[in-house]
Amino acid sequence: MKHLKEVSHFIFILFFMLTGIDSHAQEKRLKADAYKILSSWTHEDVTRQYGEGVQIIDTMAGQAYIAGFRYDDEWFDRPCELEFYFSDIYVSQFVLRFIHPNNLLLEIEDDKKKEAAKTGNLETNIIADSVWIKRLKENPDVMDSLKNVFLSEFVFRKSMFEQDSLRSDSLIRKISDILGNPIKEGVTPHTDKDSRYFATWIKGGFSCSLKDYRKFTEVYFGISPAPGAAIAEFNLDPGTRLIEKLNLKVKNKSLEISLLGLPAFKGSNYFMQLNLLLTTPHGGLYLEELPEERQGGSNPKIQHIDLTGDGIGDIWLQAESGDGRGCTTNFIYTMELIEPLLIFDPLEDFELQLDGEFQDDYQAMVLIDGYPRTYIQLDKNNPIYKELYDSSGKLLKQVYLTPGCMKQLEAMPYKSKKGHQFTGYLPIHGLSEANVIAYVQAIWDYNTGGWELRSLEVYKD
Fold first, then answer.
1. What are the CA-CA distances from residue 138 to residues 118, 230, 287, 453 (Å)?
2. Mapping DSSP to helix (H, G, I), strand (E, B) and coil, where does residue 104 land?
3. 346: three-class secondary structure by DSSP
4. Of 88, 168, 406, 429, which has the fewest beta carbons less than 10 angstroms from its beta carbon?
5. Within 225-313, where are the H helices?
6. How far are the Cα atoms of 377, 384, 395 from residue 388, in angstroms, in the given order?
7. Which among 167, 199, 165 is positioned nearest to 180, based on CA atoms?
């Protein structure tokens, strides 16, 4: 029996496979690669990309020096000032400064206050209530004029209010659309008198911190090292980075889950020694190490999602192989016992037992252990097969098929019960890794405590 679906389903699957699109590939992205800038850019990279900006001068030990460069730019659909700061020759952080639309009005108010502080006099247009009442009684038509003035001023103020980057929360929303919800957000402590509100994100190997001031909002980007307490307690490499952090509520306990990793080299998005760090409300630390043979990966990420349906939520860690093959690593951890416990590892729990070979008449036979044979019709017009078959379609040399690595893993919630089903896709290679002739779709069903393989099907390329 041939395990083939309708053509439309083929096209859908192949589109995702061939373009490398996964469930996260449609995420919105920042205007520039913040991690690349912070982990590898030098002064030369900045000037090559943005030109010679306005110098930012600072002093150290009484000596002035160039601390960075300032540029006019646009981020999150808003004009802003972009500032790069350096440590030695490398970018140490960059800052976006968004001037509030009502800044001019605030400057006028401030100038009046400064003048009052000098002279002791402050101009005022305040009219006593008794005078207002008398005027209104004598001139009833004045009320209509006042209404118009009030409405005009209200519309203007409302417009300014809505454009204010923080008061409308629009800037935080725009950043959250890309980096997810802030790990911390709220009114700044009273000790921070200058700013009014703050928000912090940690994702993709960098941190993003927003602070709103009376006249402007600043957004800081920088690299976050792993917590010093974790480095000391678990003897981690001092260069270990904080890649991402999530705040969880598990069994009425507030917890932090952090993804840590050691960059393979400066500027690399491949991290060695990936670990999950659990931090309890009282500062307790627990480190969960990945399986030794698969401790590394590029572009790693974590998400909190209730895959088991227990109402607690699980941690899904994903990483790319980083070797250019497009392979993915996936680890599912339950938080039921507070400390992360690995309950699903597709590469460990599942090994595709596949045999197959090219045959005459431009066919390939695929045999998966426990399943009927599937025959794949090859494209005889593909020049790659020109020297493999003669003019009559007879195979000239033997070619064995090999299974590829997991390219994609998707989770789909059940309609009739709690939990999620997993679907994974693996390519079948012919002459080379570039010669993908079909894909294997693997489906895992959730049963209490983990996932079990339900079915395997072959889809023709």
1. 40, 76, 78, 87
2. helix
3. helix
4. 88
5. 228-234
6. 15, 8, 6
7. 199
Q: Considering only CA atoms, which of 171, 90, 172, 93 is closest in space to residue 82?
A: 93
Cβ distance 242 to 227 under 8 Å?
Answer: yes
Length of the chain, in residues: 461
Cα dihedral 390, 395, 396, 399 in deg (nearest 10): 140
375 touches 2 (CB < 8 A): yes
Handedness of CA 295, 300, 303, 305 (dihedral sign): negative
Q: How far apart are CA 71 and CA 97, in angstroms?
A: 10
Coil, helix or strand at residue 39:
helix
User: Given pLDDT bands bounded at 50, 70 and 90, which one contains residue 111?
Assistant: low
Q: What span, in angstroms and rounded, lies between the C-alpha atoms of 3 and 425?
A: 15
Q: Which residues fall within 8 angstroms of residue 116, CB to CB, at 6 or more apart?
A: 122
CATH for 228-348 (2.40.128, 2.60.40, 2.40.50, 2.60.120): 2.40.128
Region of poorest pLDDT, from 4-8, 122-126, 249-253: 4-8
| CA–CA distance, 411 with 115 (Å, rounded to integer) | 64
Residues in Cβ contact with 273 at an 8 Å cutoff, skipping those fewer than 6 apart:
236, 237, 240, 260, 261, 262, 289, 295, 296
Cα–Cα distances (Å) from 261 to 5, 184, 241, in that order, read 41, 22, 5
How far is the C-alpha of 318 from the C-alpha of 240, rounded, in Å? 18
Measured CA to CA, the distance from residue 437 to residue 459 in angstroms comes to: 9
What are the strands, taking DSSP E only, across 284-431?
285-289, 297-305, 314-320, 328-334, 341-344, 354-359, 363-368, 374-377, 402-403, 408-413, 420-429
CB 425 within 8 A of CB 439: yes
CB 349 within 8 A of CB 366: no
Within its chain, how far is the Cα of 39 from the centroid?
17
Q: Which two tokens stand for residue 271?
A: 């991290």
Q: Where in the chain is the domain with CATH 2.40.128?
A: 228-348
- Of 76, 251, 68, the C-alpha closest to 169 is 76
- Supply the DSSP symbol for 237: -
pTM: 0.76
Over the stretch 178-192, which tens digit does the pLDDT of each residue have?
999 999 998 887 677
pLDDT digits (tens, 9 = 90+) for 390-433: 989 999 999 999 988 888 899 999 988 888 999 999 999 999 98
CA pair distance 325, 89, nearest whole angstrom = 34
Overall average pLDDT of the 103-126 stretch: 60
| Cβ neighbours of 113 (radius 10 Å) | 11
